[in-house]
Amino acid sequence: LNQVYTLSNGVQLPKIGLGTWQTKKGEETYQSVMMALKNGYRHIDTAEGYQNEASVGQAVRDSGIPREEIFVTSKLESHIKTYEGALEAFEKTMKELKFDYLDLFLIHAPWPWSEMYKDCNEGNVLAYKAMENLYKEGRIRAIGVSNFSPNDIENIIQNCDVVPHVNQIGYFIGIDQSETIDYCRKHNIFIEAYSPLGIGYLLSNKDIQKVAEKYNVSPAQICIRWCLQKETAPLPKSIHENRIIQNTEVDFEISDEDMEFLDTIKGDPRRWD
Ligand code: A2P
Q1: Which runs of E-coded beta strand occur in 171-260?
Q2: What is the pTM of this model?
Q3: What is the pLDDT of residues 189-240, one digit of tens each?
Q4: Cys bridge to 104: 38, 73, 147, 268, which one at CB 3.0-4.6 A?
Q5: Pocket test residue of 21, 204, 237 for ligand 1, highest count of atoms within 8 A of CB
Q6: Overall fold of domain 4-272
Q7: Cα–Cα distance between 205 and 236 in angstroms, integer?
C-alpha cells in the first residue's frame, strides 16, 4: 500500500489514494478519511469543489499521523481563471484544511463546469502562474492540472516555467485516454486516475467479473490493479471501511494476456447509465 511513485521534481506519492468526490462534507468525509488513514492510506485527494476540505483536514490532524507522512491533494475551482483569484482560493483551501503546506494543487479543469469546452487559455496561464509562485515559495510541493487535454497542457508549457507535475484524469477500464497519456509521458507529467471504478459502474461489467473470478479477487480490485499496471495512481472513493481496505489489497499481477483482454472493453460506463 505504501509503495510510491516519484514525480518529475522528486516528490513521492503513495500509489493508491483515497478519492473524496461525492463524499459528503462533515461526518461522512471525516469518517472515510479516518478509516483510510487507520488502514494504512497515506494519500488523500480532495478539492475546493467537493466542499469537504475542512473535514479532510480535521481527519488528517486528528489521526495523530505526522502531517509529512500524508500526501494531500486539493484543486483550484474550475471557474477561477485569474492570478489574484487563484492566490485567494489557495489561501481559502489552506484555511479549510488548516495546513501549513499542501502536497499537490491542481487546476480542477481547463474550463468552468458551467461552460465546458470554453477557451480559457489565457486564464489558465494566469491561474497557473499564481500556483507556480506558491510552489516556488515552498507552500505547495507539486503543482499540476486535471482534466487537461494535450492542447490545454501545451498552452501551459509554452507560457509558464514549471511543467505540470501531474495531470489527474478520469481513467478506468474502457475509456480511451491514450492521446493524453502519451503526451503526458513524453513531458514527464504523471497521470493520476480518478473514478478508477467508473464511479462504481464497472463493477457489474460481466467481462471484468469474469477476470475477477479467475484471480479470486473483486471487480474493484481488478479495476484498481489495472490502473497500477498502467503506471497511474488510482484514487478509488468509498465511505465503507471493508471497501476502503479491499481497494488496497491488490498485491497480485494481472497477466499480459488478461490486460490485453481488459483493454478490449470499450466505452465510458458513466455514459451507459
Ligand atoms: P461507496 O462509497 O458507497 O463504498 P470511483 O472511485 O470510480 O468513483 O467509484 C466509487 C463508487 O464505487 C462509489 O459508489 C463507491 O461506493 C463504490 N465502491 C468503491 N469501492 C468499492 C468496492 N470495493 N466494492 C464495491 N463498490 C465500491
Answers
A1: 190-194, 233-235
A2: 0.97
A3: 999 999 999 999 999 999 999 999 999 999 999 999 999 999 999 999 999 9
A4: 73
A5: 237
A6: TIM Barrel (3.20.20)
A7: 17
